[in-house]
Every structure is written in C-alpha cells, then in structure tokens.
Design brief:
Number of domains: 2
Structural class: alpha+beta
Strand content: 15-25%
Distance between the termini: 53 Å
Order of helices and strands: HHHHHHHHHHEEEEEEEEEE
Length: 335
C-alpha cells in the first residue's frame, strides 16, 4: 500500500474513531484539562499536539519492529482499567463529588494552611488538579497512547503490517489528525460546560468509565463466562471432504454472530471470520489464548488455523474488549 493510501486509510479510521470510541475514551481527559482553564484553546491544543507526537512515534516503532513493541491482551486490559479510573475521577469531579478530605485546623482552615485567606487556600489545591494545568494537558495527551480504543488498535495493526518506520508513522499521524476536529470541539465544549451541563457530562463520563472497565475485564478474561455449552449448528460449522472442520463467524458493527458456537473437538479446525461493510472495533479481532490478532477487512473474510483443539472453550473478542464470543469444543459421544 502506498504512503498516500496509508494516510487516507489512517485518516478515515480516525474520523470514525473521533465520533465514536475515541470520543468516549478521551472526552473525560479533555474535560479535566479544560474545566478550570480561562482559555481552553491552549490546553486542548497541547493535548492534541502531544497525542499526535506520541502516536506518530508509536507508529514508527510499530512499522519498524512490528508486534515486538505492541502490548499483549493482558497489558492492554490493565491499561483499559487505568483509563476507566481516570475517566471516573474526572466524572466525579464534574459532578462535584469531593475526592479528597482535608484536615481542618481550629480556625476552620485546612491544617496545611499557615494563615487564613483565599490565597492560602488556593496554594493547597490537590496534586492532580495542579497536574492538569500547564504541562498536564500535554502529559495526558501523550498518555492516551497507553489507553487505545478499538479503532486505534485497528490503526496500530495497519502500522504493524506497513513494514517501515515512515509508513507506520504516517498511518498513526493520519489517524490522530482524523480524530482531531471532533476531539477539539469536544474539548472546547467541555471547558465551557458549567452547572447542569457539567453534571450531564459527568454522568455520561461515569457510564463510559464503567463501559471501559468492563471492556478491560473482558479482554483480560476476568469476567465470569457463560458455562452452558452451545449446540453444533450446521449453518456455521461444517466438515469438508478433507476432514477439516470450518467454523464461520460474522463480524458486525455490534458484535460477532453467532457469539457462542459449538464445534467438535479432536479434529483439524479453521475459523473463518467474515465481514460485510463492517467499520466498528470488531474488525480488530483477537483470540487471547492463542495470541492471534487480525485486522479484518471491511468486506471479506480472514481464515485462522486453530489446529486440533481438545475439549474446552476458546474465547475470542474485539481488541477493545467490548464484544466477546467463544467456541466450545465438545467430544463426540461414543457410539
């Protein structure tokens, strides 16, 4: 793929992410860095500039070194949980929930204050509140590289397959540029929100924090799984003349269909994942146990050789952890 085509693909993915998954994950951070800024343009610009720099550097590394520098599912699940905690912090802050109790002196002031007065109180703001000012916006923008959404992971897989530092950097830079217009507007809007609007945003961010945490837990395999065995459905499981079992799953924008499948254990098996105009994070398909990661085409199919599986459950999930599924391999009953 040419540099121009890579740029166009990365930018297009970024435009979609800016309106969906990246918006959900990063609006909380933008709200935090702009909430008390008199002029929100500067912290938003610092946030987006640092995000562009960190993602471009990652793209160059992915293009040069490939999967060797890409974190595995377990590490990414932890990063998603950290992201959820950060989002929850800013959500509670917007809702006016006190996040830190201060000791009071006999005069009623904070115990840390040497004297009364607004100036003394202002000198003892919380550490995180000071962080998000000044350089904090740039720090948080750069840190977004550690908490990717599903479409960011799709762009990363494209950078991995590009085969060069330049091509990988172009993909990730174009991706961030694609997310920038809507992200910037969200950041400016979050900075201007006060009162009731701020509470609405805080409530929405709290929901996003829970949603992000569930994705991290699901990606890491730390949520309870459905234990009921799925029946072997001949519409999705077939065995050819060569004895190879073919399991077919359809990846849609809202999940994998069917999400629960049954298959025969002890026979060579190939998984076929099909798409038809799919643009969601389900395109970034993973089988964590086998460390299989595939970027699915918008329309087409990808074949994954599963080998000969013993009886048991094999999980698959999108790279953001939001859409899970599994294949239950079953022993054939004795005849």
């Amino acid at each position: 793929m040419s540099i121009g085509a890579l740029f166009a693909t990365g930018a297009g993915t970024g435009l979609l992410a800016g309106a969906t998954t990246c918006a959900a994950l990063h609006t909380g951070l933008l709200a935090g860095v702009t909430r008390e800024a008199r002029h929100p343009v500067r912290p938003v610009a610092s946030f987006l500039g640092a995000k562009l720099a960190s993602h471009t550097a990652l793209g160059a590394a992915l293009g040069l070194l490939g999967d060797a520098v890409r974190p595995g599912p377990s590490l990414r699940s932890v990063l998603l949980l950290v992201s959820a905690l950060v989002l929850a912090f800013f959500a509670l802050d917007l809702l006016g929930v006190p996040l830190r109790r201060r000791r009071r002196s006999s005069c009623g002031c904070d115990a840390a204050c040497a004297a009364c007065g607004d100036a003394a109180h202002g000198a003892h703001e919380g550490r995180l509140r000071r962080l998000v000012r000044g350089r904090g916006a740039a720090v948080m923008g750069a840190a977004t590289v550690l908490v990717p959404c599903g479409l960011t992971l799709s762009a990363e897989l494209l950078a991995v397959g590009s085969g060069s530092a330049l091509a990988g950097a172009v993909v990730m830079a174009a991706f961030v540029l694609g997310t920038a217009p809507l992200s910037g507007l969200l950041g400016l809007g979050a900075g201007l929100m006060r009162g009731r609007l701020g509470r609405v945003l805080g409530t929405a961010l709290l929901v996003v924090a829970v949603w992000t945490a569930l994705g991290g837990l699901r990606l890491g395999g730390w949520l309870p799984e459905q234990t009921a065995a799925a029946a072997i459905d001949p519409r999705y499981v077939a065995t050819g003349a060569d004895g190879v079992q073919v399991v077919t799953v359809h990846a849609t924008d809202r999940g994998y269909r069917p999400a629960l499948l049954g298959a025969r254990a002890g026979v060579p098996t190939v998984l076929v994942v099909r798409t038809a105009g799919t643009t969601g994070c389900t395109r970034a398909f993973e089988i964590p146990k086998l460390r299989v990661e595939r970027l699915l085409p918008e329309t087409g199919e990808v074949r994954v050789d599963l080998g000969t599986r013993a009886a048991g459950r094999l999980r698959f999930v999108c790279s953001a952890g939001h859409y899970p599924g599994s294949i239950t391999f079953q022993k054939e009953p004795a005849r």
